[in-house]
Automatic annotation (TrEMBL):
PANTHER family: N-ACETYLMANNOSAMINE KINASE (PTHR18964:SF169), ROK (REPRESSOR, ORF, KINASE) FAMILY (PTHR18964). Belongs to the ROK (NagC/XylR) family. InterPro entries: ATPase_NBD (IPR043129), ROK (IPR000600), ROK_cs (IPR049874). Keywords: Kinase, Transferase. It comes from the Bacteria. Pfam families: ROK. Gene3D superfamilies: 3.30.420.40. The keyword Transport does not apply. Coiled coil: none annotated. This is Sugar kinase. The keyword Transferase applies. One of its GO terms (molecular function) is kinase activity.
Length: 317
């Protein structure tokens, strides 16, 4: 049987990864470079071109039918542009057009990174078999995506499901996005760490003041560290419950660095969820850790490319 092959790009502020991925979600070849995030837009595109160059040099490149891109956002899939917060050289940057040109005119699908991870978890991971799901990434920021009615729901611009910027504290801290009390402002890794330090937690001799260090302190019984995770869990629970109430999801999948804290996060999250997800149709909501790991962005970008190919085939294009 002929297996579809697509190219995938996962673009973030730290790294630009690329892969050739088959129709079963297997990565056959990968390439990666550091993102020159502080350079001008064309320099960043040069790094993307370098990754694509490694893929196009593969003997299997000729089989690639499409390209999928999962990018840090905001993205605008309808315009084919990206404006990643942490890549200042790209503002309304015509990434789809540039990638199409660099790959000999292949069809290109663009989605936000949260939506890409959602596509991966639904195709191959923890949300597999679920028709209505929310998948979240809790790390430096908080992103997410939705599966509704068995299909990825990226929305018109590719940003739907961006749960990090639901406000869960009306009079809360100002968020860099311009709103107040956003989930991200309370639950992201840097904000968990910041809150712990503000309330008197001190890093150990190694000076590590990351959320991972706060998690380790919480496991060791530090009440201030545990309280910072409990507050993050409460914010996540409120955001998840709001989403479930709005669109009826039955599973929430949580990945990203902060989810690696395990039960330090998940135990208070499940408890808090019973306080917020109270209506009969959301009471059965499951919360589980993500399964796809660091390749989720690439696998999800590939899923978007394959879906695009399917759509064109059905339309007879």
């Amino acid at each position: 049987m002929h297996t579809d092959l697509v190219a995938a790009l996962d673009i973030g502020g730290t790294k630009i990864a690329g892969a050739l991925v088959d129709g079963h979600g297997r990565i056959l070849l990968r390439a990666q470079v550091a993102t020159p995030a502080q350079e001008d837009g064309d320099t960043v595109m040069g790094a993307v071109a370098q990754v694509l160059g490694e893929l196009t040099a593969s003997p299997r490149w000729g089989e690639a039918r499409a390209v999928g891109i999962g990018s840090a956002g905001p993205v605008d899939a309808s315009a084919g542009t990206v404006s990643p917060v942490n890549v200042p050289g790209w503002r309304g940057y015509p990434l789809v057009e540039r990638v199409r040109a660099a790959t000999g005119g292949l069809p290109v699908s663009l989605i936000g990174d949260g939506v890409a991870i959602t596509a991966a978890e639904h195709w191959q991971g923890a949300a597999r078999g679920h028709d209505n799901a929310l998948c979240m990434v809790v790390s430096t920021g908080v992103g997410g995506g939705l599966v509704l009615g068995g299909r990825l729901h990226p929305g018109p611009t590719g940003n739907a499901g961006h749960i990090g910027h639901i406000s869960v504290d009306l009079d809360g801290d100002a968020c860099p996005c311009g709103a107040r009390g956003c989930v991200e402002r309370i639950a992201s890794g840097p904000n968990i760490a910041r809150r712990a330090v503000e309330r008197g937690w001190r890093p150990g001799p190694d000076g590590d003041a990351s959320a991972a260090a706060v998690a380790a302190a919480a496991v060791a019984g530090d009440p201030v560290a545990a309280a910072s995770f409990e507050r993050a869990a409460q914010a996540l629970a409120a955001g998840i419950a709001a989403t479930a109430t709005l669109v009826e999801i039955d599973i929430a999948v949580i990945g990203g660095g902060v989810a690696k804290a395990g039960e330090v996060l998940f135990a208070p999250l499940r408890r808090a969820l019973t306080d917020y997800a109270t209506l009969s149709f959301v009471q059965g909501l499951e919360v589980v850790p993500a399964r796809m790991g660091t390749d989720a962005g690439l696998v999800g970008a590939a899923a978007a490319a394959l879906t695009g190919v399917e759509r064109e085939t059905v339309a007879g294009v």
